[in-house]
Structures are given as structure tokens and as C-alpha cells.
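Researcher: Sequence recovery benchmark, item below. Answer with residues only.
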């Protein structure tokens, strides 16, 4: 159909358009004909402004109808997108509608900043304002860093403090480049590592067993042993204290009980701990005894030199309460750590002292909580972490400030 368009300077144009064409596409045609940018156009039909997302047929435009093209009200547009000093929108509802109506801008946002685009498309004004405020803070921080770098370029070469700042800036730049390279070439390094679990049966009771070659002994909790009907076999002569990062009470030992892996049964012995945050851990002693192989290529645990293979569980198959136990064990004195468990939270920590499940086992001294410890706590609290988490993290890493900070940021 043909549509007649009259511009503000009384220029008359006749355009061939499809009835299902959008108003935005009509503006694009007019931009070619009149050299007036699309964003500066206002089209009116029957005295009503036409919105970019509307179709010509849906608003009643028919063959031969007249459409008026007026210059947009730049002042009104500026008022709509006006921002407060903290980066939030002065009129968030109008700002949201304005950006939604600009399909080209929305397409750019969906590609460059999907989080902001989703907030604009969503219904939560508070979320939109929070993201706008966050983006403003990021821009201000970037501007501040750029100003500092520019100031350092013109700093006195004999100023010791300025040279230290230049050295720190160069070192940080190298770290940032290394981080960007890792994002591009090794992105999986930033993903959360799912621990290794397999399905087993202990005395006929199905369990999700945590496979850990860094654990000295195979461990079962008191509650789990009771559920499996094994607590009656507990030999309390092997009572003691398991010591490592924190400590846990050893209730005794179950010398032999059947476990089923795949379709075969194997004899297994357990150390029983009073550990509410751990259920069953398949440790190095039984891994060695039954010639197990942790095959990460095929993602299976091979037992008996390969006579049985059971797949490691995917994250969705691991019960939520077990995943919570993993998180708790990072900050609590978990029994897995007390027996040499090597978990994600303990990467880079020094080797724990060897322990035997005998009464009167020596207890390791916790990190000293003197002035130096308090200074580390204060420094990490200033980074935004609560004091309790900071103290637990420092204890977890024997007072190592850098490892504690890495753990807190990663957690």
C-alpha cells in the first residue's frame, strides 16, 4: 500500500510499505529519504503518536492515508533519561519505557549488558535502580583508576612513593591480563568444581559416597552407621580424637562390613566419627585395598583393577543436603579435614600431621590469635566480609591471610 508522509517543512513523500510493516521500519525509510535520524522522528496518525513497535495495520493505517512527521521533542527525551548523581534514573518508569521503545538500543544492551537489559524488561524498579547505581560506581572507579594512571605518568621519577605506585600498577596490569587470558583460554577454571560422589550400598543401605583419595581413612558418621545397622559392631577401644584443621571425636571403629559397588560386594572397615556435617567418605585406605582407579577421562570409578566401573554422579544427582555439607565443611572443623581430606577449600594448605585413631592423640595448636591475627582479621573485614567468616577462614588456613582471602572471594 502507499502511505503519504508530510514533514514539518511541508515536504510530501509517497512511500510503498507493507501493511504489517513496523513504525520503526517506516522511520528507517524516512531516514533515507529525508536524512532525519530515526531517533529524531515523531510520526503521528489521526493526532496520535505512533510507537516504534506498533504495526501500521494495527493502528489503522490504510492505503492512501496521511502520516505527519514532526521533529522529536529533544528536551522531553533528555528529561526521560535524566540520571541522579548516584547513577539511578530520576524517573525510573519513564526511563524504562523509553529504553524499551528503542529496539536498536535494546538489541545493543542485550549483547553488551544482558543483566541491565533484563532489568529494563523486568518488573522490578528497585532491581533496575540497583544495577544502574552499580554501573555508575564501576564507571567512577574506572575513571579514578585512569586518572591515577595519568597522574603517575607525570610523577616525579625520584619520588619513592610514586614509583611504588607505578610498580603496583604494572603488577596489577599483569594480573588483569593473566585473568583475561584465563577467561578466554581456560574459562572452566572459574567454574565450581563438583566433588566426586558415587552410588554405593553399605550393609544393604544405599548411600552417596564421597570419594576422596586425600582422606587417610574411610569414614562413616554415627548417624549413618546407625541407619546402616552397623553401630552394634562399633569397637570403642579405638576411641580418640582426629586432629587437623579443627578436631572431631573418634567414637571407634567398625572392623569389617560389606559394601556394594556396582554389582559386586567388597569388605570394608570404617572409622566412626561424631560428625553431623558428613555422612560417608570413601578414603585412601579402601581405595588402595580394592585397587581403585579414579578415571576422570571416562568419569568413572574403577574397582578391583577394572572389574567394576561406576559413574561419578552429576551435580543434579547429588542431594542438596550433601552439597550444603560441603559448604559447611569449609568453615567448620569438618571430620573429612580432620582425617586428611583434600577438598576445594583446602587447596594450597600445608600437609596435616599424621593421626592414629588412638586415645590421647595429640591436638594441633590453632593459629595464635594475638595482635598479628587481629590485624589480619581487620584487614579482611575491611574488604566487606563479616568478622565470623574471616576468623573461620583464617583458622582454616592456619592464619595464612592470602589463602583466607582467596577462599572468601571464591566462596
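Model:
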Amino acid at each position: 500500500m502507499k502511505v503519504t508522509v508530510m514533514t514539518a517543512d511541508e515536504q510530501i513523500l509517497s512511500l510503498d510499505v507493507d501493511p504489517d510493516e513496523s513504525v520503526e521500519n517506516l522511520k528507517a525509510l524516512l531516514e533515507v529519504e529525508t536524512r532525519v535520524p530515526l531517533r529524531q522522528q515523531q510520526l503521528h496518525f489521526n493526532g496520535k503518536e505512533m510507537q516504534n513497535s506498533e504495526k501500521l495495520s494495527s493502528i489503522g493505517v490504510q492505503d492512501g492515508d496521511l502520516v505527519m512527521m514532526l521533529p522529536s521533542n529533544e528536551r522531553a527525551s533528555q528529561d526521560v533519561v535524566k540520571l541522579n548523581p548516584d547513577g539511578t534514573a530520576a524517573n525510573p518508569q519513564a526511563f524504562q519505557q523509553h529504553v524499551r521503545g528503542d529496539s536498536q538500543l535494546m538489541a545493543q544492551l542485550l549483547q553488551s549488558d544482558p543483566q541491565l537489559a533484563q532489568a529494563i524488561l523486568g518488573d522490578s524498579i528497585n532491581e533496575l535502580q540497583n544495577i544502574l547505581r552499580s554501573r555508575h560506581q564501576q564507571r567512577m572507579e574506572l575513571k579514578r583508576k585512569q586518572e591515577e594512571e595519568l597522574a603517575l605518568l607525570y610523577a616525579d621519577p625520584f619520588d619513592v612513593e610514586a614509583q611504588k605506585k607505578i610498580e603496583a600498577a604494572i603488577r596489577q596490569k599483569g594480573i588483569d591480563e593473566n585473568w583475561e587470558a584465563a577467561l578466554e583460554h581456560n574459562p572452566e577454571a572459574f567454574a565450581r568444581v563438583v566433588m566426586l560422589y558415587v552410588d554405593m550400598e553399605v550393609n544393604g543401605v544405599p548411600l552417596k559416597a564421597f570419594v576422596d583419595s586425600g582422606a587417610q581413612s574411610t569414614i562413616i558418621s554415627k548417624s549413618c552407621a546407625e541407619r546402616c545397622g552397623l553401630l552394634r559392631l562399633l569397637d570403642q577401644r579405638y576411641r580418640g580424637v582426629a586432629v587437623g584443621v579443627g578436631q572431631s571425636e573418634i567414637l571407634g571403629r567398625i572392623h569389617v562390613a560389606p559394601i556394594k559397588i556396582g554389582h559386586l560386594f567388597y569388605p570394608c572397615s570404617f572409622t566412626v566419627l561424631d560428625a553431623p556435617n558428613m555422612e560417608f567418605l570413601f578414603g585412601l585406605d579402601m581405595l588402595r585395598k580394592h585397587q581403585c582407579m579414579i578415571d576422570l577421562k571416562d568419569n568413572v570409578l574403577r574397582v578391583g583393577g577394572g572389574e567394576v566401573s561406576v559413574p561419578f554422579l552429576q551435580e543434579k544427582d547429588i542431594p542438596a543436603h550433601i552439597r550444603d555439607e560441603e559448604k559447611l565443611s569449609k568453615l567448620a572443623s569438618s571430620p573429612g579435614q580432620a582425617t586428611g581430606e583434600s577438598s576445594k577449600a583446602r587447596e594450597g594448605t600445608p600437609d596435616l600431621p599424621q593421626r592414629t585413631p588412638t586415645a590421647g592423640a595429640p591436638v594441633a595448636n590453632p593459629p595464635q590469635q594475638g595482635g598479628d591475627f587481629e590485624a589480619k582479621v581487620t584487614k579482611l573485614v575491611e574488604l566487606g566480609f563479616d568478622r565470623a567468616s574471616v576468623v573461620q577462614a583464617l583458622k582454616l588456613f592456619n592464619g595464612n591471610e592470602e589463602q583466607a582471602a582467596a577462599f572468601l572471594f571464591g566462596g
